[in-house]
Amino acid sequence: MPPVKRVLIIDDETSIRESLDMYLSEKGLAVEAAGTGTEGLAAYHKYHPQVIILDIRLPDISGLDILKRIMETDHDAKVIMITAYHDMETTIEAMRQGAYDYIHKPIDVDELDHAVTKSLHIADKVHAIPHLQDDQESGVRHQIVGKTPAMRALFKTIGLVSRNRATILVEGETGTGKELIARVIHESSLVSDQPYVTVDCTTLVDNLFESELFGYERGAFTGAVETKKGRLELAGEGTILFDEVGDLPLPLQAKLLRFLEYSEFTRVGGTKAILSQARIIAATNRDLCDLATQGRFRQDLLFRLRVITISVPPLRSRLDDLPELVRFFLHKINRDLGAKVTQVEDKAYAVLRNHSWPGNVRELKNVLIKSVVESRGSVLLADALKTVLAASPRDLPPITGLASLDDLEKTHILKAMVETKGNLSAAARLLRISRPTLRKRLKLYGLHQPDPRNP
Ligand SMILES: Nc1ncnc2c1ncn2[C@@H]1O[C@H](COP(=O)(O)OP(=O)(O)OP(=O)(O)O)[C@@H](O)[C@H]1O
Ligand SMILES: [Mg+2]
User: Please, how many CA atoms are within 13 Å of residue 13, restricted to the half-sphere of its CB?
Assistant: First the structure.
């Protein structure tokens, strides 16, 4: 037989104490009752109840203060507050402080029954998340969470590259942590005391490229009222990240390539060549090889960038990292939002594992933030996660890098041509279309006509 569950009632109204005591005892629970806050706290420390039914208004100590003291202790008791209808603010405050649930006065037996049953059930089915090490919590350094083999391999690569200054390409789907990885590479490198500078390639347009990257001299153009250093100069001997490098327009790719070849630049309107010592990292959520096949990314630039490639695996391929990521983010959310979610319902992990995470770790973080708000009290509930996930497609980041149908067809045809070494008949057979159709398509997409001597 399972051990008897203990319930503590703290209420100054004798009639409430007596009726609750009778009702809950009949359900097979061990009930203790206290009429004041002081007595209540003493009983709490003595009996270690699983559930506490706590009146918000008590003669000596306020219910909120008692709640606060209970939440500060290690024992995982679930607190159900008894509140009056007009007490919205106190109710909110109680939930914010970690109360598990609340019931209104006058007490409705069904409501009470439901709250108690649920909290006892939850008390059985949740696990406290262990505390992070102090150094992790207080450390100023960024942390990449993960324990799966793919992530361990990634840590190893970061360790290796932090010893040299080779150019790195970080690729991976949106939200997988590419920017975070770039930062950690910088922080673990020999130049961690030097600047870390980011260039968002999506915002670079024509003329801005040079002035942003290389800076400009006073009077170089209208509006250049004083000399300004560009990002490269600001990075000094540190690290510069070219973020979303796949979005860089072709003409600017040529300019970036020219810089990479010589590591030298001149400020706009200047004459002096400045040698850049910065370590270059490029990040992208697009498949640059694909873009290169389509002629939308320069092959030579790609070669320059991927001296070392770090491919960040999507979250759905490393679901075993979920518990640690959840633990990490809950600590962060608790700290940043003043929440007190310290436990996770077992079922919650199954819900998380069943989702495909198109937005990867960023999506997980956002889902957790919303679910913490949704899961009143100190437990991250599976139901809260379900509610948030059901609503989440609307909040997903827009799918970038999704090729158009024409692009897909073009690449597909190109692949067939490569596969058949330009043999039109063989390619047409492979694609299951006629030769004339293939010819038309090739022309439409401006692809090279195969050599007529080798049709
Ligand atoms: N392994 C991880 N451990 C801890 N936090 C992570 C991890 N991966 C990602 N994050 C966090 O998730 C969020 C998204 O990560 P980041 O911005 O680095 O993604 P990204 O790959 O650059 O995405 P995008 O392609 O959309 O720019 C950040 O808050 C980041 O700190
Ligand atoms: Mg990014």
Answer: 13
Provide φ and ψ at 256, rounded to 5°.
-65, -40
CA dihedral 368, 371, 372, 374 (to 10 degrees): 170
- For the stretch 151-163, pLDDT in tens is 888 888 888 888 7
Please work out whether the CB of residue 284 comes within 6 Å of at least one atom of ligand 1. no
Residue 280 lies in a domain: yes
Nearest atom in ligand 1 to 182's CA: 18
Residues 292, 322 share a domain = no
Residue partners of 408: CB distance under 8 A and separation at least 6: none
Q: What is the pLDDT of residues 346-379, one digit of tens each?
A: 899 999 999 999 999 999 999 999 898 777 678 8
Range of the domain at 202: 149-311
pTM of the complete model: 0.65
Atom of ligand 1 nearest to the CA of 181: 18
Q: Residue 163: helix, strand or coil by DSSP?
A: coil
Smallest CA separation from ligand 1 atom 23, residue: 175
Strands 264-265 and 274-275: antiparallel
Residues 177, 302, single domain; the answer is yes
How many structural domains are present in the chain?
4
Q: Does residue 281 sit in the same domain as residue 369?
A: no
Which amino acid, one-letter code, is at 226? E
